[in-house]
Structure formats: structure tokens, C-alpha cells
Amino acid sequence: LCLRSDTSKLLPEFAKYLIRGIEFRTCLSKFINKAVNQASVSISNLKTIPVAVPSLPEQRRIAALLDQAVALRAKRRAALAQLDTLTQAIFLDLFGDPIVNPRGWPLKKFGAVGTLDRGVSKHRPRNAPELLGGSHPLVQTGEVANCDGYIRSHNSTYSDRGLRQSKLWPAGTLCITIAANIAKTGILTFDACFPDSVVGFRAEDSATVEFVRTWLSFLQKALEDNAPESAQKNINLAILRDLDVPIPPISLQRAFARRVAAVEKLRTAHRASLAELDALCAALQHRAFRGEL
Predict the structure, then answer these.
(1) pTM of the model as a whole
(2) Which residue of 5, 60, 204, 271 has the fewest C-beta atoms within 10 A of its own C-beta?
(3) pLDDT in tens, 67-95
(4) Are 181 and 142 in contact (CB under 8 A)?
(5) What is residue 78's three-state secondary structure?
């Protein structure tokens, strides 16, 4: 749909915020036709949505304020994106390319670096709803794949009955996906269960877990591209256990973990600031279209 406004009444720079506003979207949701394959709304219904349109000078002022807020938010997101790549850069600086291993670190099979086992879920929760709804966190494959290296939240829980047919992994466990999303990783920040589509890695030293998480990030694309595919891509535990891991001295791994912790502290601050900016943008937009700016 192309919206072309009469610029003598409605400025495009104001209109783009108008149609993103909660008031407009609330009205829009009343007309959405969900009977088709995707949500849709007719043009005739779209034309009936009432909008408050201030004077042109006021539209310019409001749009400029919102532009500034959006620009600040974009800069914060860009800073976060740069921090996301910083951990790999630190790894390369300390250890070299983990694929080529130019510094000749001794190699060890992944299965021998620590404990590496699949999650446990003897019964699928979708087939046994009584397994869900308790106090025991249940982390799913998507939550591992979509985290930013650390799993801080969960959407599901097991009941006591659910826990009995599963396994509770301690905080600090590295979760590795082996189905659909291949070799995506995240470190648990709380004790949790996860299904057999996720592998858990534990090591004697938490620095080794951090080292392995970043090492796997360099291999992730190759593992995914080469994963066997039937109904969906997957790799098995044997493939992971047989991977060669370069093993630098533990003192160097600990130095890496300290630097990663410093980066994570910065990321936490940036995420908090971004959340504040998101709230500010929403509040400014809400107030703007209520005539309160």
C-alpha cells in the first residue's frame, strides 16, 4: 500500500509517525481480516480511521522531535551491534583464527574438553500439558538461538512431573542447538531444563565455557551449512564431540573471560539505555498525537 498525502494538509514526515502510533494501530486492528492467509485490511476501512492532524508548523515540530529520538535510538543500536562483534575481535587478538590455529595451540576433541550431553525430555510437552506450568524453567531451542550469548529469560516452565522426566542444568551451562537452528549458543544465567534438541556443555572452569562459546561462533555457519537435512537440518552429538578444539593455556582463557565480562557490562548498560529510549519514543509519540507536546 502506498500512502500519498496532500502536503497542504499532512506532511509525509509527520504521517510516517502518525500511522505507527498506538492510536492509529488500535483502530487498524479492528478492521484486520484474519480469514485470509495473512492479516489484511481494506482501503475503504483504512479511510474511515479518524486521525488528529495539527497545523503544518506543529507537524514539522513534532516530526523533528521524534526524528531526534529515533536517531538517538539508532545510534544506541549501532553501538550494541559493534559490541556484538567485539568479543570475536578479542578472541582473534588473543588466540588467532580458531579454524587455522596459526599459533599452534594443542588440539583436543570437544567431547574431552568438558561434559557434553543432550538435554532430556522423555515426553513432548505439547502431547502432555500436565508437564508444564510449574516453577522449573524450560528453555527451548528458539530461546537459545535468539539470545545474545546469555540466556536471561524463558517463556515456559515444567511442573514437578515435567522435571522428573527431564534434567535440570545449572547456571553457567553452555546451551548448543542441534536441530533447526544449528550450533547457536547461549550460557544459562539460571538453572533450567531443555529438550534433546539442545546440547549442554560444562567445564571445570567457567572461562573454558566462555572460550568455547566464542570458538563455536566461528564454526556456526559451516556447521549449519553442512548439517544433514531430512524434515529439518540437524546435527548429532557425535559430530560435536569429534570437533577439534584449540586449547590455549587456562590463564589466557581466564584473561579472555575477564575481557568478555567487561564487554558484557558495557552491553548491559547499552541495553538499559536502549530500553529507556524505546520507552521515550513511545511516550513522545503517544503525547504528540494527544496534543500534549
Answers:
(1) 0.73
(2) 204
(3) 888 888 888 888 878 887 899 999 999 99
(4) yes
(5) helix
